[in-house]
Write a structure and sequence with these properties.
- The protein is of the alpha+beta class.
- The protein contains nine helices and nine strands.
- It has a six-stranded antiparallel β-sheet with strand order 6-5-4-9-8-7.
- It starts with 7 loop residues before the first helix and ends in a 7-residue tail after the last helix.
Length: 263
């Protein structure tokens, strides 16, 4: 564990299961593409997941979907429903004012996972994003905020595991690390992504993320997404950054003042 070298077969199997779970059901070819594994490898992974009861083949067609057994993998994980409950009215109010959708995301491993969003509350969106959607931590505004406000030891641990990962290009990682300006993000209180390449509409949106805290410790990132064609990033910052920060501050205040009996 000191070197953090992952077991490649397990990593690939998890990638396949995540892809199936995210899309609802996939063909074998789609599983291979989504998990970025050779077709024969995808076949072996699917056979294993079928044997373990984590997926099943749909009747009358060769597509595979997750079973209810997948839910048992999360029984030991305590959902922080307090975050969603408290943030929800604030982000809905922000979208009502600004028009643009916002999301709340937390770090899960080396990815950012959406806990809630207002895409369904806005017409200014190409796609709807729901809880569970993930983004790479170094290629998203929310991920950059999460990395910047993480403890130095925690941030280095994440980067160390990414460096030994077999599915991450080291040249890309080196470039991403250099571009992660931790001190600037901490000083300015926000991070940006000029073009989002790992969402459902690659290259068509930009985003601004601000941190949410609980009792002074980073809790989540709040991100506003807008069309690249609608305005420049500098214009978006000038127009919406103050409101984003004020909204995040209000959420942070409410999170930090939850009565002990309700936490």
């Amino acid at each position: 564990m000191e070197k953090g070298v992952p077991i490649r077969s397990i990593t690939r199997s998890i990638a396949a299961l995540k892809a199936i779970n995210r899309h609802g059901s996939l063909s074998m070819m789609e599983i291979a593409k989504s998990a970025e594994v050779p077709y024969p490898t995808a076949c072996r992974i699917v056979q294993t997941l079928l044997y373990e009861g984590l997926i099943e083949q749909e009747p009358a067609r060769k597509r595979y979907r997750a079973t209810a057994l997948v839910q048992t993998l999360a029984t030991g994980f305590q959902h922080d429903d307090e975050l969603v409950r408290i943030a929800r009215p604030h982000i809905v109010a922000f979208t009502a004012r600004a028009g643009w959708p916002v999301s709340i995301a937390i770090r899960v491993g080396r990815e950012m996972m959406l806990r809630d969003s207002t895409h369904a509350n806005s017409s200014l969106t190409f796609e709807h994003y729901y809880p569970g959607f993930t983004l790479p931590i170094l290629d998203s505004a929310s991920g950059k905020v999460s990395m910047a406000f993480a403890d130095d030891e925690e941030r280095e641990m994440i980067l160390r595991f990414m460096r030994v990962s077999q599915d991450i290009d080291l040249n890309y990682l080196a470039t991403a690390e250099v571009s992660l300006d931790v001190e600037r993000i901490r000083a300015d209180g926000y991070a940006v992504q000029g073009r989002n390449h790992f969402n459902l509409t690659p290259g068509k949106t930009s985003s601004i993320a601000v941190p949410i805290f609980r009792n002074g410790h980073f809790e989540a990132a709040m991100t506003m997404v807008f069309f690249v064609a609608a305005m420049k990033l500098s214009t978006a910052l000038e127009t919406y950054l103050d409101d984003l920060k004020a909204t995040a501050a209000a959420i942070s205040h409410d999170l930090s003042n939850v009565p002990m009996g309700n936490a």
